Amino acid sequence: MARIDLHTHSTVSDGTDSPSELVAAASAAGVDVVAITDHDTTGGWAEAAEACPPGLTLVRGAEFSCLSPTGRDGEDRCSVHLLGYLFDPEHPALVTEQARLREERVTRLHTMIGRMADDGYPVDVETVFSYLPEGASAGRPHLARALVSAGVVASVDEAFAKLLHNDSPYYVPRADTAVETAVEMIRTAGGVPVFAHPLARTRGTVIEPSVLVDLVGHGLGGIEVDHPNHVPADRELLRGLAAEHGLLATGSSDYHGTNKTTPLAAETTDPEVFEALVARATGVGVVGASAGR
Ligand code: AMP
Ligand code: FE
Ligand code: FE
Ligand code: ZN
Known about the structure:
Elements: E1 4-8, H1 19-28, E2 33-39, H2 45-51, E3 57-68, E4 78-85, H3 92-118, H4 125-129, H5 140-149, H6 156-164, E5 177-178, H7 179-188, E6 192-195, H8 209-216, E7 222-226, H9 232-245, E8 248-251, H10 271-280, E9 287-288
Parallel strand pairs: 1-2, 2-3, 3-5, 6-7, 7-8
Antiparallel strand pairs: 3-4, 3-9, 4-6
Helix pairs in contact: 1-2, 5-6
The protein binds adenosine monophosphate (AMP), fe (iii) ion (FE) (2 copies) and zinc ion.
Adenosine monophosphate binds at residues 14, 39, 139-141, 156-157, 160, 203, 256.
């Protein structure tokens, strides 16, 4: 059966493989379909498409940083991620919003570095930004790598656990897009919005499942059910919810190269679900092997 991985990151955001290395690695790992889904950017699309090896199908997408209602009364919005697939990358509202978020990512990372440096941590802007190609989406994993290289922590995971998690005094939030707006924007741009890792509890606050149901009314197309940060009971809950509401249930590795330990295709999407996703998109097509099918 085809191996389909619909969620991966390159150096254009917080992965460690360049877009061409990413498609080469997917091909070498025996993956049939891979999606490039960098945070808040389509900057890796052209290189990945250009380098897409024969036999591999490339799905162009992005992971949008959003704020969502938690579904619990009296609570502020929480940080969530929304995957968007096969949307028109030139849709004006989307281009403007992604550019705003990338700028805010830079400012916010400067603030985090400043706070840590003030407390005596051996981190500086030059080192952190040396991990980022021009125009890439800056994020906490870049700061985590600087902390590893300075010997403060042994791994990116340890950096998050000790210093960079959402409740850390060094954490600086961003003004991310309202998730309802992002769902509608991706749809308007001809893409398919899929809620990323909705119940990844190890990362912090998660939403109530009722939020997913509310988003169906805004045009949500799917839920990422099989994800390395989802426990079995939550997968079953999400799978049931997807079936009940006609949502696509995807599965993906959320590969970040050496910034995380998860290999490509550690979790995969059913070929029928993938075909249905492609059939719903009107923005851009897939690249490579199954293009035009
Ligand atoms: P940011 O976009 O700067 O808020 O950073 C979030 C990114 O950090 C996510 O996209 C993940 O790649 C990574 N991340 C979040 N939580 C963890 C964690 N607990 N351990 C390792 N990486 C994490
Ligand atoms: Fe990431
Ligand atoms: Fe994510
Ligand atoms: Zn991701």
